[in-house]
Design a protein that fits this description.
Blueprint (H helix, E strand, L loop, with lengths): L26 H33 L3 H30 L5
Length: 97
């Protein structure tokens, strides 16, 4: 019989332990995450307001103004998306499967 043992596995990276066993984020990291989500929500609220205004303008036949608000809505949507994407990219480094 072969008495060799398999090589030892590398220890997990910090924060990448088995799900449910990782240390929770520090309070300042949680606050930063909360602020990011609040900022995204504010951008999405602004996008929604522009969408409502675009609808009003389209109904009133004011196509140039409606289109401008439509583009503004998309800009706010993209801004929210960028912040959330940055957090998602950072989180991918701490999450394991």
């Amino acid at each position: 019989m072969d008495d060799q043992q398999p090589p030892a596995a590398d220890p997990p990276a910090p924060g990448s332990q088995t799900p449910g066993t990782a240390d929770p984020p520090a309070p300042d990291a949680r606050e930063a995450a909360a602020r990011l989500f609040e900022e995204a929500a504010a951008e999405l609220d602004r996008a929604a307001a522009h969408c409502r205004r675009a609808a009003e303008h389209f109904r009133g036949g004011q196509v140039p103004s409606a289109t401008a608000h439509g583009w503004a809505a998309l800009g706010h949507l993209r801004e929210a998306e960028l912040g959330l994407e940055a957090q998602a990219r950072a989180h991918r480094l701490r999450s394991t499967v």
